[in-house]
Every structure is written in structure tokens, then in C-alpha cells.
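Q: What structure does this chain adopt?
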Amino acid sequence: MLGTIVNVIAVLAGGLIGLLVKKGLPQRLEKGLMTALGFCTMYIGISGLSDGKLTLVLILSMVFGTIIGELIDLDKQINRLGEFVRDKVSGKDTKSNIAEGFVSASLLFCVGAMSIVGSLESGISGNHEILFAKSTLDFVAAILFASSLGVGVLFSAAFVLVYQGSITLLAQWVAPVLSDAAVAEMSCVGSLILIALALNMIGLSKYKVMNFVPAIFMPILLCLFIH
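A:
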């Protein structure tokens, strides 16, 4: 869990710095910064698509994963959690973007390739190098996100702890069925979801991106049957 703990600390530290910076930023600059972050997120997503080689696995993963996500409406549940945090922190202030900051930051920090592969390596071999590198990137991203979206980014650290921690702790159990192909396809699906998140950040769409997240884990099963 060392890699995940370091990652959580990096997000909290970056978020706190971002909150200090936010006080001096005009609203127009905040909007421009979020658009810039959206394009950066899109670049990360596009560059990660090349990890996948099995198009059928990508398609089926997105189909089955989205069905699961829509049936339980994962996006709604996570947003409710974000709104609960907002109500506790800022009362019933509907203008507060705590929920948006929580959801957007949680997605950015958790659905990328480094989060998945790093957590798996941390759990299987005790190698935390990928998560340490990710922590550095997330530290910078947390500064930028918090300076634009506020305190909600800090609470995304809890999501990172639960998400990456769970993958790390379960890694040895799934290792026997976790092929290199499955990991590559999980990375590819996560990258595609990042592109959807980027479109939301830029303001071109309002996808319920959280409902796509179950698709990340579909390749573990599908790669057992599709090669």
C-alpha cells in the first residue's frame, strides 16, 4: 500500500497548494485553465489508446461495462457523494463546484493506465515505482485542479485510496487470470474514458463518465475467451 499512500499524500498536498493559489485567480483565468487541463487530459487518453490491440475486447468492455454502470447509475451515486461533501463543507450552496471537482479529479487520478498498472505491480511484486511517478504527476494536476475547481479535489484523495488500494490488495488474487493482454486492454479502456472526461472538461459534452468506469475491469474476463 506504500505507493497508494504516497499518491494520496501527493494529491492532498497539491490540492492544498491549489486552494491557496485559487484565492488570487480571476474567474476567466479559472475557466481557461480548466479548458487547458481538458486538452491535456485528452492527449493522455489518446496516447494511451495504442496500448490496446484487441478492438473487440475494447468494444465489448465498453458495452458491458456501460450497461452495468447505467443500471446502477454509478455517476449518480458518486455525484450524490460529492453533493453530500458539498453540503457538509459549504451548506446548500448550489453554486459550489465541490461535487464537480471531486468527480472530475477522482476520474483523472484513477482511470488512467498508471493507476491500474501501478496498483497491480504494487500488489503483485511490491514495486511502487509507477505509483511514485504517478504521484508526482498527480501532485501537479491536483494544484491545477484545485486552483480551478476548489476543495472538492482534496476529497478525491479518498477515492484514490479506496480505488487503488483495492486493486493493490486484490492484485495477488487476480494475478493467475491477469494476462499481459488483459492489462493492456484495461489501460486502453481507461484511456478512452479519459477522452470522454476531457470532452466534459472542455465543455463540449456532459457525459456521465462514471457510468463507463466498470468497463475498465471487463477485459479481465473477456481476455480469457478472446485472444
